[in-house]
What we know:
Layout: H1 2-17, H2 27-44, H3 51-64, E1 76-80, E2 89-92, E3 96-100, H4 101-106, H5 109-124, H6 127-150, H7 152-165, H8 170-186, H9 192-205, H10 215-218, H11 223-236, E4 254-261, E5 267-272, E6 281-290, E7 295-308, E8 314-317, E9 328-331
Parallel strand pairs: 1-3
Antiparallel strand pairs: 2-3, 4-5, 4-9, 5-8, 6-7, 6-9, 7-8
Amino acid sequence: MILRRATVIILTLVLAASSCACWAVSLAQEIKIGKEASAEVEKEMPPSKNAKWQADITALGNKLVPYVTRKNIPYHFKIVTDKDNTLNAFALPGGYVYFTEHMWKILTPDERAAVLAHEITHCDLRHGIDQAIGQQQRMLWTLPLLVLGGGAGAEVWMAGNWAISARYSRKMERQADENGIALLEKAGLSPAGSVTSMKKLLSIEQGQNRYEISSIWADHPDTQKRVDYLTQAALSMGAKPSDLELPSVRDPSRLGNVVKKTADLTVLYCRTSVPLEFGQKVIIKKLLWDEDKGELTPQPVAEATVLSPGKLPILVLTNKTDQDFNDVMVGDGVFPAS
């Protein structure tokens, strides 16, 4: 809903800025459109209060911006909060680039750079404006019929259809992939993150990790194909095959995985390698990026008690947590005191 409102704003402003004869949108208009859309985004997705993250994304973005084609766009990089804990990164026209906190946390530095380069490329190639213009042209053919027969339904159609079709075309995504990895090379950054970030998305699609992935990311071109052509590009740039593999994270305290959860996150259904006993205390862990260690590590996020014993136990949480319980494991041990 948040991005829907922002994209409707973009749609409206593009219509106001362009003429039907040439559909031209100037750079100044593009920047204005992005600024107004970003204000709408940040009303519902406030910037993260983590000052280090904000400084890191700005520093990383500033390493990439000198190598873009359009030099006269002032870029803005922010990490925003999202109550749904979605994995998402997106760009608005005029140089506004965002990561959700959850997306930032699960990526390595190389992967963050790769996703950032991809989104910067969308801005550099004017994909957001071009997509909006294409949608406006399609709407002009349909809107008169809707207005004549639709009444209030026309407004609903405008918002809903834009939100559905506002995603970048597959051609645009391919361009952002290819130009993005080239941008990394120009900036002297590793291309490996372009591949490993896609492999993480692929594992999400295949259900190996149960992250809440934004539908915008899910609509990207076939992820395996992206992994394949990005792998070839990264290897041609000197990346080692071993650099393109996701690390295997092993935790000696791991007992099993959470396979299902209730909506209120109070009861978890699990599968474990050893039988658990009624009343046994276990730790719920999640793979999170450890800034100090510089790697993904299993970190305790909650404590639970075994309600139904065996290798398919049912657990009930004994403490509150704001974690989303996607890609979590059951571990042995004692939950750290706060």
